[in-house]
Amino acid sequence: MRYQLIELSTGEVPGLGVLSPRDKPPVINIRGPTELRSSAIEHLRVEIDGVPFALPAGLTGALPCFLPDPFTSPPIPAPVRAGR
Questions:
Q1: Do 78 and 36 contact (CB within 8 A), yes or no?
Q2: What is this structure's pTM?
Q3: Is the N end or the C end of the chain the one with fewer CB atoms within 10 Å?
């Protein structure tokens, strides 16, 4: 599966490659809003600043996904339920 990250403000490509199921997840530093492209985007998992970021439902195949600026709008973590 191919993937590519494109920083929208600079046009730089900080992440580009091919992933297989046994590969370690790549850690890519981005600056600002970013476009994520993949040949099978529904199989990717994204974390922003260590917090899982849910890709929008309905993304399949080669549809692009726009990620927010991680410094200004990281996703809110889900509340932790207290055990009894």
A1: no
A2: 0.69
A3: C
Q: How far apart are CA 33 and CA 12, in angstroms?
A: 11
Nearest Cα neighbor of 2 from 35, 37, 47 is 37
Token pair belonging to 17? 């490659």
DSSP annotation of 3 reads E
Residue 78 C-beta-side C-alpha neighbours within 13 Å: 6
Amino acid sitting at position 59 = L
